[in-house]
Amino acid sequence: MRPLDEQTILITGATDGLGRALAGELAGDGARVLAHGRDNRRGLETVEKIRVQTGNGDVHWLCADFASLDEVRGLADQVIAEYDQLHVLVNNAGIGTALPGDGRRVESRDGYELRFAVNYLAGYLLTRRLLPLLARSAPARIVSVSSLGQAPIDFDDVMLERDYSGVQAYCQSKLAQVMMTYDLAEELDPGEVTANCLHPGTYMPTKMVRAAGVTPVTALEDGVAATRRLVADPELDGITGRFFNGTREAEPDPQARDRDARRTLRELSDQLCEL
After folding, report:
1. Angle formed at CA 89 by CA 84 and CA 90, multiple of 5 degrees
2. What residues are annotated to the active site?
3. Is the pLDDT of residue 209 over 80?
4. CATH superfamily of 4-272
């Protein structure tokens, strides 16, 4: 892998919590950081604070609401048009079990269950659109921030129209990220692009956790360190298709290893994303 000060790294969900802290660390190490979020004012303030705190002026703001697949396409097009290299994509943006919706089922602008759309489909579409740029920038890495909180997907009711639960919605979206990671690892040459995912920590002190009324367990710094390892540790060169609990390799829900289920999810995702 290249030294961090020669890398361009895109972090989604970079205005708060894990994404914000990771962006600051990587910018402090000299990387060009592309920080994504959906609130333009907060995003511009975040980028300016990181620039001042790190002395790195090569930190850039990208605005897109992941509840809209059209905005995700626009984000991918912007990255492709404005940057000739992309060495790491960190799929971090997401919403938790409670907000928005406060326990009620909510749909994205495209009419899909919101957590499936924001936590999984947006990252799926963005990753697929950016794959050629990542491959041209090889060696490159795709890192997806998933969770140990996983639930099998019922393909007869993916959008949870019959029996909605915020926990089920969140947990199936997180398993879908792992399934995407395993597919990418089988598809891509690990000498060029690797794909790994992780559970960074249990109930870190983030906005998502606070909204759910849960007492934090893992320090944010520990989650950042575990995620940064997948982004930047040279010992992980060529390592692909792994799920980590912090820094330890772990086993996800068994559905992640089910090739038929992964194929069904992939075909559905291509259809919903119009790929």
Report:
1. 150
2. 170
3. no
4. NAD(P)-binding Rossmann-like Domain (3.40.50.720)
